[in-house]
Amino acid sequence: MGFSLSRLFSAFNRDLAIDLGTANTLVFAKGLGIIVQEPSIVAINKDTNHVEAVGNEAKEMLGRTPSNIVAIRPMKDGVIADFEITEKMLSHFIKTAQKRSGLFNFFQTDVVIGVPAEITQVERRAVRDSAKKAGAANVYLLDEAMAAAVGAGLPVTEPTGNMIVDIGGGSTDVAVISLSGVVYSRTLKMAGNAMDEDIVQYIKRKYRLLIGERTAENIKTKIGSACPLDEPMEMEIKGRSLETGIPKTLVINDSEIRKALEDTVNTIIETIKIALERTPPELAADLVDKGIILTGGGSLLKNFDKRLREETNLPVSLAEEPLLSVVMGVGQMLSSPGLLERVCRKE
Ligand SMILES: Nc1ncnc2c1ncn2[C@@H]1O[C@H](COP(=O)(O)OP(=O)(O)OP(=O)(O)O)[C@@H](O)[C@H]1O
Ligand SMILES: [Mg+2]
């Protein structure tokens, strides 16, 4: 095969795909796969406004910072709560990805970013501008639900209905997709983070013990569940006693954590049921066979799939890698220009 300049360039082409999530940001580089997977957290020095750490390093600092440093989650409820810091974070991750993929700014990098369906114009612009500042030539935005569906391997271009439920950190997105478009979608600003908060409140009320959000998340992932487990589980936790102010240890079990999570889990299930009621009949009929695909880290809550199956009588399955579906879906856009043009918006 003869020498071709475009082939040469494409060998160096490191287009990036990003899942900018409330809890985690992931970056996929064409030809390399996922090269960044870190918490969406930034530690800022309040005195100098300087970024002290981003991602894993910043998460370590959560709840443990000296008073002049704050660890911030710039994305909240699935949307951008702090523009300036989101911009800094995004640009940090893009630069990290460029470094890790051996790409400096020599070659044109296109960036595709998964964003929530209900993102505002102002937020779209903020995401685009921060990607451009970080060196992106072209920026495309893709609806997260569509990305999750593609990443989970659903046949999104076919004329059949597929329902995808993405339970993330900040939001739960329910979408019905058919013919490369989102036919119905609904966002609930409640997901994994709300469950953590439920646990903090429950432990405080019941045991007068204060725990941090990292401990709460740990409890949720280890013994949290949406309906009874085959084997009961227990766990030792540490916190600060509200009465004495002294650190204290106690043992909690799965059934009390299930109770703590009950309201949030019920609200998520209700949202899915409402989406089912509002799905156009032909597509609803498709769902009887094809069921519901769950994705997002929150869908890993033990027995959530079982509970949803019981409540809807539909087949429910968990995506293969719930934490990776969105970034894998956005990543697929990089090598399918046809689909990219059809489902993404160039900013
Ligand atoms: N095994 C588990 N059980 C329960 N929850 C889990 C588990 N693993 C991760 N999670 C939760 O999943 C959430 C993160 O999921 P994910 O990375 O999909 O969110 P995100 O994409 O950053 O958020 P969003 O889509 O709302 O912007 C966190 O709340 C985390 O605690
Ligand atoms: Mg997400």
Topology readout:
Elements: H1 5-12, E1 16-20, E2 24-29, E3 33-39, E4 42-45, E5 50-54, H2 56-61, E6 69-72, E7 75-76, E8 79-80, H3 83-100, E9 109-115, H4 121-133, E10 136-143, H5 144-151, E11 162-167, E12 172-178, E13 181-188, H6 192-207, E14 209-210, H7 213-223, E15 234-241, E16 247-253, H8 254-278, H9 281-290, E17 292-295, H10 304-312, E18 316-318, H11 325-334, H12 337-343, E19 345-346
Parallel strand pairs: 1-9, 9-10, 11-17, 17-18
Antiparallel strand pairs: 1-2, 2-3, 4-5, 4-6, 7-8, 10-19, 11-12, 12-13, 14-15, 15-16
Helix pairs in contact: 3-4, 5-11, 6-7, 6-8
The structure holds adenosine-5'-triphosphate (ATP) and magnesium ion.
Adenosine-5'-triphosphate (ATP) binds near residues 21, 22, 193, 296 and 323.
Radius of gyration: 21 Å
**Order of strands in the sheet with most strands:** 3-2-1-9-10-19
Number of DSSP strand runs: 19
User: What structural class should be given to the helix and strand makeup?
Assistant: alpha+beta
Can you name the CATH architecture of the largest domain? 2-Layer Sandwich
Assembly annotation: single chain
CATH topology of the largest domain: Nucleotidyltransferase, domain 5
Please give the share of residues in helix.
Answer: 40-55%
Shape: flat
- Could you give me the name of the CATH homologous superfamily of the largest domain? ATPase, nucleotide binding domain
Describe the 3D structure:
By secondary structure, the chain is of the alpha+beta class. The chain has 3 domains: 5-147 and 325-346, ATPase, nucleotide binding domain (Nucleotidyltransferase, domain 5, 2-Layer Sandwich); 159-190 and 268-318, Nucleotidyltransferase, domain 5; 192-260, Actin, Chain A, domain 4. 41% of the residues lie in helices and 28% in strands. The chain contains 12 helices and 19 strands. The protein has helices at residues 5-12, 56-61, 83-100, 121-133, 144-151, 192-207, 213-223, 254-278, 281-290, 304-312, 325-334, 337-343; strands spanning 16-20, 24-29, 33-39, 42-45, 50-54, 69-72, 75-76, 79-80, 109-115, 136-143, 162-167, 172-178, 181-188, 209-210, 234-241, 247-253, 292-295, 316-318, 345-346. The protein has a 6-stranded mixed beta sheet, sandwiched between helices. A 5-stranded mixed beta sheet has the order 13-12-11-17-18, with helices on both faces. Strands 5-4-6 form a 3-stranded antiparallel beta sheet. α6 crosses α7 (213-223). The chain starts with a helix and ends with a strand. The model is unreliable at 7-11 (pLDDT under 50). Bound molecules: adenosine-5'-triphosphate and magnesium ion (MG). Magnesium ion (MG) binds next to loops.
